[in-house]
Amino acid sequence: MRKLSLLMAGWLGLTGRGTAAPSPVAAGADPFAAARQHMVISQLLGAGRGITNARVLAVMGQVPRHEFVPERLRAQAYDDHPLPIGYGQTISQPFIVAFMTEQLEPKPTDRVLEIGTGSGYQAAVLAGLVAKVYTIEIVEELAARAAADLKRLGYTNVQVRAGDGYKGWPEAAPFDAIMVTCAPERVPQPLVEQLKDGGRIIIPVGPLWNQELVLLRKRGGKLEQHAVLPVRFVPMTGKGQGKPEVRSVK
To answer: Out of 5, 42, 92, 248, which one is annotated catalytic?
Structure first.
């Protein structure tokens, strides 16, 4: 109980001072502020969850998740489950976003690659914690929408690209960390090659019915890996499935 109180105090202190995440609405004018605070307390700090990184908690308490979901679903934006965002894709459950972010151990100087932009919410969370986020989305319409939303909300340190995430972003490499939010059956070798020595990858791996969230660290050119959580993510498409590299859904 004392540990939980200390974590809440640390989170509230950081929330008051702010991070790199912009504030899209004036203080006191956000109708979802209470729901967002309740999400952090009940879903991230709550029993059985145990997110402990104060910087991650602070950013989760600031990023307006409701701005990244369809308007008809905004009342559910801070609920404890994923939501559909169109084109067969989802925005992950808040706990999974926080858990993957914490596992990645983001640092203020990091350059991070994200594979699977989706709504742009995870990129917004990372943007409040690191120096630069490069994010790739294979569905052109989702990439365009995420880029527009991130720009509208003031996230200036995120660059969005429509393309096949399997190949990574070689011209921007190497990266301090890589986050993958769609599941290939094995870790793509191009991502390993684009990771700095000492860098981290968090990625769901395996078929839809048997996926594990895996954390990898690159040391001396070799990968150390361990499974951290059973999960279920949408599969990686494009080269990861032998399909076209960019999908446009009209």
So the answer is: 92
The mean pLDDT value for 193-198 works out to 96
Q: Could you identify the residue written with the tokens 């990184």?
A: 53
- Distance in angstroms (rounded) separating the CA atoms of residues 202 and 103: 7
Active site residue 92: yes
DSSP letter for 92, please: P
Q: Across the strands, what pairs with 213?
A: 204, 229
| 82 confidence band (pLDDT: 50, 70, 90) | very high
Enclosing H/E stretch for 189? helix 189-193
Alpha-carbon distance of 160 to 162, in angstroms, equals 7
Domains and CATH numbers, the chain: 2-241 (3.40.50.150)
CB 178 within 8 A of CB 126: no
Phi-psi region at 218: left, alpha or beta (left = phi > 0; alpha = psi -120 to 50): beta
> Is the pLDDT score of 184 beyond 80?
yes
For the record, the structure tokens of 186 come out as: 């094995």
Strands 222-231 and 83-86: what pairing?
unpaired
User: In this structure, are residues 132 and 106 in contact, taking their beta carbons and an 8 Å threshold?
Assistant: no
Q: What tokens does 25 get? A: 């609405």
* pLDDT for position 238: 78
**Hey, what are 160's tokens?**
């969005």
Instruction: Encode pLDDT of 162-177 as tens digits.
Output: 999 999 999 999 999 9
- pLDDT, tens digit, for every residue of 124-150? 999 999 999 999 999 999 999 999 999
User: Do you know the residue count of the chain?
Assistant: 250
pTM above 0.85, yes or no: yes
